[in-house]
Amino acid sequence: MAAQHGIEAHSDGQWHKPVQTRSDRFHSYDVQDFAEITGREPFWKLTPQDRLAPLLGDLDGSRYPLAASSVAGVSSGWVPRDDSVIGSSGKVPEDRVSASAWSSFAEAFVVNIDKDASLAESVVVSRSELGDAPRAAHTVITAGSGSSALVVLDNRGLARLAENVEVVVGDGARLTLVSIQDWNRTATHAATHFIKVGRDAVIKHIIVTLGGDLVRITPSAHFGGPGGSVSLLGLYFADAGQHFEQQLFVDHNEPNCVSRVTYKGALQGESARTVWIGDVLIRENAYQTDTYEQNRNLILTDGARADSVPNLEIETGEIVGAGHASATGRFDDEHLFYLQSRGISESEARRLVVQGFLMEIVQQIGDAALEERLVVALEAELAHTVI
Questions:
Q1: Whole-angstrom distance, CA of residue 47 vs CA of residue 57
Q2: How far is CA 387 from CA 276, 301, 333, in A?
Q3: 317-347 tens-digit pLDDT
Q4: Which of 20, 23, 37, 176 is the S-S candidate for 150 at Cβ 3.0 to 4.6 Å?
Q5: The pTM is what?
Q6: Are strands 321-329 and 290-299 parallel, antiparallel or unpaired?
Q7: Considering the chain, what is the average pLDDT of its residues?
């Protein structure tokens, strides 16, 4: 029996024991190879199954409404599922929803950044009002060797969407990818991002989640050569009843590579829920690895809950450094006291602390207009915070 959902067949063929290493999880492009999701699997146990339900049946894999900016040095468009670019990230779905999206899409949208191109403006791919029919999507972003670019995936409106996003960063390229989930309040979105980083390449991958009913993003990064650098950054603000989930994986499979993971979130309102699980694996051949991951959460009101689980697996002793951290709590009283001692009201002081806490991620984007949009969105969230 093949390993599935964190379990594998015992030698007697009947009993099961947990998969011990993240990289050992079962994987397949075919949804039929996965068992039905029950919610008891380690990979799904923190996800509300009733709210995930729209994505567990048949998915419409046809072309959907999309707009992409025209930028010199970039080509984009739809390709059939048998195009050679499909699967170029080198990774395979590890869960049923990702495999269902892969099995269902008819065409993929591809963004290709030319070799050695240094883009003067951002590439923006916008989707809005995809409708309430369950849908599959596939996106491939390739950054040619030596290129430098900022790509924004901007999601708004209503959607029931399961998707895979492949990101291939060529040797020596520098790519910033920002994925914004600004869906309306009833949207359901589950996405897997497969990231391959070439020799001496750099990627800054930023997930921003502000809207939706259930949003579940699972980034997975690995290296296609030594000397690569990965920054996985995330920002989320969950209101009453919203469920925002991030399960990420950094696979250090090459030597002399660096990874930094920083996710920050704020929660307010009854039954606001966030889940963050960060897995980092340093393989035996990945000597001189330098990695650190952290997750920080601010609970603004009673009734909110944040689950945070960092995991680190090390198979070699020849590393530069490796560590992880997690913290969930309320306000820093010293910060509040400092601001109030300078004549700022308690409520305004609390808002300034929250904004400063989250702005660390926003300021990493490098696009002034987009950063300003997110500042306005965060101020709107904080304007109705009861603290």
A1: 17
A2: 24, 7, 14
A3: 899 999 999 999 876 666 666 556 766 776 6
A4: 176
A5: 0.92
A6: parallel
A7: 91
Q: Residue 35, Cβ neighbours under 10 Å: how many?
A: 12
- pLDDT for 5: 45
CA separation, residue 216 to residues 47, 242, 250, 343 (Å): 8, 11, 17, 41
pLDDT at 63 over 50: yes
Model confidence band, residue 107 (pLDDT cutoffs 50, 70, 90)? very high
Q: Half-sphere exposure of 260 toward its Cβ, with a 13 Å CA cutoff?
A: 10
**Within a 10 A sphere around the Cβ of 384, how many other Cβ atoms?**
9
What pLDDT is stored for residue 356 in this prediction?
Answer: 83
Sequence-distant contacts of 339-346: CB under 8 A, at least 24 apart: none
The distance from CA 206 to its chain's CA centroid, rounded to whole angstroms, is 7
The answer to whether the beta carbons of residues 222 and 248 sit under 8 Å apart is no
Helix (H, G, I), strand (E, B) or coil at 100: helix
The angle at the Cα of 139, spanning 133 to 140, to the nearest 5 degrees, equals 170
Separation between Cα atoms, residue 29 and residue 226, nearest integer Å: 27
**Is a pLDDT exceeding 70 seen at residue 4?**
no
Please check whether residue 220 is in contact with residue 192, taking contact to mean a CB–CB distance below 8 angstroms.
yes
Residues in the chain: 387
At 335, phi and psi to the nearest 5?
-65, -45
**Structure-token match 């509300």, residue found:** 48
Structure tokens belonging to residue 233: 């950054």
